[in-house]
Amino acid sequence: MRLTRTSAAIAAATLCATLGSAIAQQPIVLQWQTANLTEKQYEPIWKATIAEFEAANPGIKIEPVLVARKDHWTKFVAAALAKQAPCIVGVDVATAAYNGYLMPLDKYMQAEPAAFRGAWSADILSAAKWKGQLYGLPIWGGTYAEIYNRDLVTKAGLDPANPPKTWADYLAWSKKLTGNGVWATAVLGGKTDTTTRVLLTWIWSNGGEAFNADMTEATFAKNAKSLEAIKFYLGMAGKQGLAAPAPTTTNYLEQTNLFAQSKIATMRNAYWAVAKVNEDNPAMKGKVFVAPIPANVPNAPTMATMTASSISASCPHSDAAWKFIKFDADKKWSIERAKVANWMPLRNDLANDPQVKADPMLAQFVQIGTNARSYPLPSPIWAEIAAGDIVDAVQRALLQPEKTDEIFRELDAKLTKKLRDV
Length: 422
What we know:
Layout: H1 5-25, E1 28-34, H2 43-56, E2 60-65, H3 69-81, E3 88-90, H4 93-98, H5 106-110, H6 114-117, H7 122-126, E4 129-130, E5 133-134, E6 137-149, H8 150-155, H9 167-177, H10 194-205, H11 224-235, H12 252-260, E7 266-270, H13 271-280, E8 288-291, E9 302-311, H14 318-328, H15 331-341, E10 344-345, H16 354-357, H17 360-369, E11 372-375, H18 382-399, H19 404-421
Parallel strand pairs: 1-2, 1-3, 9-11
Antiparallel strand pairs: 3-9, 4-5, 6-7, 6-8, 6-9, 6-10
Helix pairs in contact: 10-11, 10-18, 12-13, 18-19
């Protein structure tokens, strides 16, 4: 049987319509890559997030890209250069935006209701910006606070209900907490950026600044308040003798081990450090309390490390990608990440949530985090500065405290040149 031209045309049109309908019904597939998807404690949360999102949005599928942390940035850059990067990524925002790997998100953020836009403070959003544009939505982080060993505090005759509020208070406590193989704290000078994180909290607690507002000048020594803070903090391990030995090799791991072993009575760290201590020494569970960082100025900010979700510059489905990012940033998942993975929410509208208030320590961290600055600082060379230059200066000052002024003046000059060459 032969088809006439008319019937053939009709058949072709029908086939095209059928194929077109089938194509139209194909879901949008969004790849999602962060360095955290391979972490065990996060797995149940991201799987539940995807399942719930896909159920509510049947036209969108989320495809997780599981990459080891050490390969995460390299894999992302290679894909970005080929314009094939996953649509949704969690990367170093300033560096990726500087290189043109990310899409500005201002149009999406500005289209959201005021309540949503106001859920993040300007300080928290600052680390997700580059040249004034927003390139990521802060999802979770680590709020830094002062964490104390209750048994050691009470044994020293101190009151856990009245923790130190000023440096003078903290110094008085530290003297009572040090002795017989136990030290008040640990000074971090090891070769990671955790050294820089803690140093910045001391500088801010004294009203100092390590950099000027637009990140074109370093002021570690130029700012008198900053230099005073550096000397006080590093002096805890030097002339004061109130910090554990070997500060130049003390990193996050060594610090939390010392705390878990009751070798130090207090540590400045993020919420997840409490979970690590409890895992390292289950006998510590329930014997830890937390307080705001002691400060010499009113309303001194703490630090909150920031992990943001961004949209890659080559993403063909940016509307759908924003829809998922916004879903993942919802209060529900922010609280779940805190409860299950010990990752703090960066929204500032959760302090009175019933689930948060039901967990006293979580509630304290959330409250402390309402006055926090975000980290990393917004510079495409921040990783190099934070884990290299600043740490080198700290180590030199720990070994040659009499040269602290000179060392940090040199650091200011070196970093200022680097920042202005960007």
